[in-house]
């Protein structure tokens, strides 16, 4: 297996893992007060009809990024098995889906960051972004790396010529 494809598969797997962990945990926002500490995530408990619009947008684009990341990793795995993939097309499709996943994550994270950043603050409560939030941001460069390495792997792949037909 080519080094670029192997590194793309590693970066894609790490990106997919970080998105899935970020989406499934509830440490996106942490608040510490004088007598309490709390944290919240993308899936608030209770009445689902009163969930803020920016949370819905963040949920949607995170799920879209996870699905595109899964497709990207899947096409990379399939490209390693010549009998299951079209010659040279697996890395190209993987690259496209990885870039779509990165774009989806940028939209999700930018919406969440801007909305949380602009919320009113209390002087006695310290509000911070949590580790789940940072995992979401870490997935963006990992998806971009996956897309770039997959594109390099596609460009380096041998092309069929007329003699082989």
Automatic annotation (TrEMBL):
Q: What is this protein called?
A: Protein NKG7
InterPro entries, sorted: PMP-22/EMP/MP20-like (IPR050579), PMP22/EMP/MP20/Claudin (IPR004031)
Biological process (GO) annotations? defense response to protozoan; inflammatory response; killing of cells of another organism
Stated family: Belongs to the PMP-22/EMP/MP20 family.
Position of the signal peptide: 1-22
Tell me if Oxidoreductase is a UniProt keyword of this record. Answer: no
- Pfam families given in the database record: PMP22_Claudin (PF00822)
| GO annotation, cellular component aspect | cytolytic granule membrane; plasma membrane
Q: How does it sit in the membrane?
A: Multi-pass membrane protein
Keywords, in A-Z order: Cell membrane, Cytolysis, Inflammatory response, Lysosome, Membrane, Signal, Transmembrane, Transmembrane helix
Membrane-spanning segments: 61-81, 93-113, 133-153
Taxonomy-wise, where does this protein's organism fall, top ranks first?
Eukaryota, Metazoa, Chordata, Craniata, Vertebrata
Chain's role:
Regulates cytotoxic granule exocytosis in effector lymphocytes, thus acting as a critical mediator of inflammation in a broad range of infectious and non-infectious diseases. Essential for cytotoxic degranulation of natural killer (NK) cells and CD8(+) T-cells and for the activation of CD4(+) T-cells following infection. Plays a critical role in CD8(+) T-cell and NK cell-mediated cytolysis of target cells and contributes to the cytolytic activity via the perforin/granzyme pathway by enhancing exocytosis of LAMP1-carrying lytic granules.
Indicate where this protein resides in the cell: Cell membrane; Cytolytic granule membrane
Where this protein primarily resides, as one coarse class?
A: membrane
Q: Which domain of life is it from?
A: Eukaryota
The organism of origin for this protein: Phyllostomus discolor
Q: Does the keyword Signal apply?
A: yes
